[in-house]
Amino acid sequence: MTRFAGKKAVVVGASAEGGTGWVIAERLAREGADVVVAARNLASLQRLADRIKGHAVRCDASKPEDIAALAQECAKQPGRVDIAIYAAGWPQAGTIASTTPADLMEALGVNFMGPFCFVRSIAEVMNDGGAITVISSLASTNVVPGQVAYACAKAATNLMMRYAAVELASHGIRANVVVPSLIATPMSEPFRAMPGVLDAVLKEVPLKRAATADDIAAACLWLSSDECFATGAWLPVDGGHNLRRAPYPEDFPKGAYESIDSEKEGQR
């Protein structure tokens, strides 16, 4: 399949092998796109770029100047951008009482400021009729206890993307959000492997499995394709998890819930 032949794409948050951004970049390249990949870990990123014959750009998604530089680097490559996907994330565990202003600012950096600056900068170098997709989280729409800063940052991004959909519509640029729950990636495997953890999560998932990176990639590629007419949409890709509730701390074995903070995506 070459539905993206001749298209130019950029994926932020693609340095974790087997992670969501990595798989999205691989699938875009497989379907014909010329892909720019960006993240903080340039060594890992370069391995991906070499594999897909793409272009790697070091970028800390929490820094507006890095996002702006990424857009300018994309502009130097032949052709304007057609597809832009923001897959970076940084969970920040804590309640209102335990979250410090510094914690809040860290959560906002990657999870709201990053997408905001990405949309703002990449739209300037994007072809009319392009598509921007941001990966959000179930925490942005459903209460996930102990994730207030991360959840609020992601919720702000969801709303920002609706504004983007309206403001960019005159150029035919579509802006959408993919909303996953737990994703079965190598990075989440230690958490999922803890006794009782997966059972606690899947109890609330009607389709009884976690999403895969391929599931998320398939949604992102559809939203990025010419056959898609959606804009301003929040697309749950979670097996129906959003229809119920997120697991509460008491649903997990002792100590498991607290370990969520250590499972950061690390894909700035």
Task: Describe the model.
By secondary structure, the chain is of the alpha/beta class. 37% of the residues lie in helices and 17% in strands. The protein contains eight helices and nine strands. It has helices spanning 20-30, 42-52, 64-76, 101-122, 148-167, 189-193, 197-202, 213-224, and strands spanning 8-12, 34-39, 55-58, 81-86, 126-135, 174-180, 183-184, 211-212, 234-237. It has a seven-stranded parallel sheet, with helices on both faces. The protein has a two-stranded parallel ribbon with strand order 7-8. Helix 2 (42-52) links the parallel strand 2 and strand 3. Helix 1 (20-30) crosses helix 8 (213-224). The longest helix is centred in the middle third of the chain and has 22 residues, at 101-122. The chain is globular, with a radius of gyration of 17 Å. It starts with 7 loop residues before the first strand and ends in a 31-residue tail after the last strand. Mean pLDDT is 92; it is low at 261-268.
In whole angstroms, how far apart are the ends?
Answer: 30 Å
Give the low-confidence spans. 261-268
The proportion of residues in beta strands is 15-25%
Calculate the mean pLDDT score and round it.
92
- The strand order across the widest sheet is 3-2-1-4-5-6-9
Supply the number of helical segments: 8
Shape: globular
Helix content: 25-40%
- Largest beta-sheet characterization: 7 strands, parallel
> Could you say which structural class the secondary elements and strand pairing correspond to?
alpha/beta
